[in-house]
Amino acid sequence: MQVMVRDNNVDQALRVLKKKMQREGVFREMKQRRAYEKPSERKAREKSEAIRRARKLARKQAIREGLLPAPPKKKLPERKPPLPQTSRPAD
């Protein structure tokens, strides 16, 4: 995984890297590997994850086909306009 650092802004690059790792499921996998997981528990977990993915896919397909209403879109909070710059006399 690779992230470009622009203008020596390491904090922003770290945020982007964390977001990419979250999307890929790296953190979830690290948490699971901390302790031993019995093969039967692993099968049950993988089966439930597969069911969840299938349901999500079916729900998205139904929304696309118009069988289900689309969820309401989240409204972004309004940003306040920046304060006007006042010119201060030089002392």
TrEMBL record:
Q: Gene3D superfamilies this protein is in?
A: Ribosomal protein S8
Q: Which domain of life is it from?
A: Bacteria
A GO cellular component annotation here is:
ribosome
Q: Which residues cross the membrane?
A: none
Q: Which InterPro entries match?
A: Ribosomal_bS21 (IPR001911), Ribosomal_bS21_sf (IPR038380)
| Ranges of Basic and acidic residues composition bias in the record | 28-52
Q: Which UniProt keywords apply?
A: Ribonucleoprotein, Ribosomal protein
Full protein name = Small ribosomal subunit protein bS21
Spell out the family assignment given in the record's similarity comment.
Belongs to the bacterial ribosomal protein bS21 family.
Its gene is: rpsU
**Disordered, as annotated region:** 28-91
